[in-house]
Design a protein that fits this description.
By secondary structure, this protein is α/β, with parallel strands linked by helices. The chain is 37% helix and 23% strand. Strands 5-4-1-6-8-7-9 form a seven-stranded mixed β-sheet, sandwiched between helices. It has a two-stranded antiparallel sheet with strand order 2-3. Helix 1 crosses helix 4. The longest helix has 16 residues. The protein is globular, with a radius of gyration of 16 Å.
């Protein structure tokens, strides 16, 4: 039987370094960062035969954001000011409710990752059932697939940090699939990052 993998896109942050609603920034023609991420992950989940992605929302909740995510399962994070960990907790809670075997955590602003990258990550997880993650900037990171037995630890993370500590622990225990994914290093944090991305796309 196929494992039940739940995919969640994290898009609740204040994007303070961007000085505005980063998720609405246009990164491809008229397509926003958030829309691009949802379109990409819809393709990934359809190809992999798993449930369509959910999206964690928080800061900058407005009509446009709600419209972009209207066909996705929306997880509203009222605690977004507490940082990334609060979104990870909401994603984990959703995975628990869905009785997931695994949770694929995705950051909406990792703009250079393509469908094949995500599919490769899922494929590696399915090969041996281990926690799986990307490797870039000489370190482990998201996107990552966490197992159901990781959920309790994910729920205990605090502050503005993600789940890297859990990945590092799995690495120490030799219970981690590490997939080189240099394109995961490209994320949009500032207007300058966006300008660089748009220049490189031309």
């Amino acid at each position: 039987m196929k494992p039940n993998i739940i995919t969640v896109i994290l898009a609740a942050g204040a994007s303070s370094r961007f000085h505005g609603a980063k998720m609405l920034a246009k990164v491809k023609g008229n397509q926003s960062l958030l829309a691009r991420s949802i379109v990409s992950l819809n393709k990934v989940t359809a190809t992999a035969g798993i449930k369509a992605p959910a999206v964690v929302l928080g800061a900058h909740l407005n009509d446009e954001i709600m419209a972009i995510t209207a066909t996705s399962h929306q997880i509203i994070n009222p605690d977004w000011q507490q940082g990334l960990s609060s979104s990870v907790k909401h994603a984990s809670q959703y995975a628990i409710e869905q009785q997931a075997d695994a949770l694929l955590l995705v950051l909406a602003d990792q703009v250079a990752i393509d469908v094949d990258d995500y599919l490769h990550l899922i494929e590696r997880y399915q090969q041996n059932g281990l926690t799986s993650c990307a490797f870039y900037r000489q370190d482990v990171g998201v996107p990552a697939i966490f197992l159901a037995k990781d959920f309790a630890v994910l729920m205990s993370i605090d502050g503005d940090k993600g789940a890297k500590s859990i990945l590092k622990q799995h690495d120490k225990n030799n219970s981690l699939n590490i997939i080189p994914m240099e394109q995961a290093q490209f994320d949009i944090d500032t207007p300058a990052d966006l300008a660089r991305w748009l220049d490189n796309k031309d």
